[in-house]
Design brief:
It comes from Marinomonas communis. Pfam families: HTH_1 (PF00126), LysR_substrate (PF03466). One of its GO terms (molecular function) is transcription cis-regulatory region binding. With 297 residues, the chain is of the alpha/beta class. It has twelve helices and eleven strands. Strand 3, helix 5 and strand 4 form a beta-alpha-beta unit. The mean pLDDT is 94.
Length: 297
């Protein structure tokens, strides 16, 4: 790598055209200027100037070196300008959340991007553990998870909550929801069911359901595509538990029965980023948008 001080001395010499005046401009001695030029020539392996008495001419290599010096100066100025310019409505914002939350968030976030075209939203759908892993590696800068992560690695704050829903086929609309009925209907399993179902049963306010051993439930189906989980439920093949946003997005609402629990079941949502990571101002815009969406959703 060429010494940037020697390079700047060479650039100044070319622009001033005189060794003494270059020394004055750089607050150096004239021998110091000559020494920088000789060191730069040694570093690149070519003569850069040809002395003609008190004057000099650039060699072909000298002209190339001067062009390079101009580019370095311009690139440095551009970088410093970019470092000092932190636009709240410009740049890439990389986020991660669950599939159910993505259904709720993505359309409003696209509306925000439409309002500010230079604000680019990249939304990754991932489970909690993957979101946290991606925050550590820098694959994403901001995540929403359903448990408060390790405070030594992450900075988190409560941003809202999501409602969990117990969903059965519409044929059970008038049925009393008891453990026996759930055993009879069977579970449509999915990647988050082992988390959602015990949580729902524990918090729904029904002591009998709270005692249900979910491990003994008959599983009548499994699907890992969020948009398809409610399809077997709508066809009368089983029940499941999902966030309200996922239920609301299902097209055939008339084929579902969403149980009204004695107590609403809410799961806290945490907005998370890597600890000690200072995010650009554009993420303030995203913070505000997410808070508004989740408070109204």
């Amino acid at each position: 790598m060429l010494n940037p001080i020697w390079l700047n001395t060479f650039k100044t010499l070319v622009e001033v055209g005189h060794f003494t005046q270059t020394a004055d401009a750089l607050h150096m001695t004239q021998p110091g200027v000559s020494q920088h030029i000789h060191k730069l020539e040694s570093a690149c392996g070519h003569l850069l100037i040809k002395r003609e008495g008190k004057r000099f001419e650039l060699t072909e290599q000298g002209r190339l070196m001067y062009d390079y010096a101009l580019k370095v100066t311009k690139d440095e100025a551009t970088l410093l300008e970019r470092l000092s310019f932190d636009d709240p409505f410009s740049g890439v914002c990389k986020l991660s959340c669950s599939g159910a939350l993505a259904l709720l968030l993505y359309t409003p976030l696209l509306a925000l991007q439409k309002q500010h075209p230079n604000l680019i939203v990249q939304l990754e759908v991932a489970p909690n553990h993957k979101t946290l892993q991606d925050l550590q590696t820098g694959a994403v800068d901001l995540g929403i998870v359903t448990h408060q992560p390790n405070e030594t690695q992450y900075q988190s704050s409560v941003i809202g909550s999501e409602t969990l829903c117990l969903v059965l086929p519409s044929a059970y609309q008038d049925a009393v929801i008891q453990p026996e009925l759930l055993h009879q209907v069977g579970l449509i399993n999915h990647p988050d069911a082992k988390h959602y179902l015990p949580l729902y049963l524990e918090r729904c306010g029904d002591p009998a359901l709270a005692e249900l051993d979910t491990e003994r439930l008959a599983v009548t189906g499994y699907i890992n595509q969020l948009s398809q989980i409610l399809l077997p439920v709508a066809k009368g093949l089983g029940f499941t538990v999902l966030p309200e946003a996922a239920v609301a997005s299902f097209a055939h609402q008339e084929s579902l029965h969403v149980v009204v629990p004695k107590q609403p079941v809410e799961e806290t949502l945490y907005l998370v980023h890597k600890r000690y990571r200072t995010l650009p101002k554009r993420y303030d815009t995203i913070f505000k948008a997410l808070a508004e969406i989740l408070s109204s959703g």
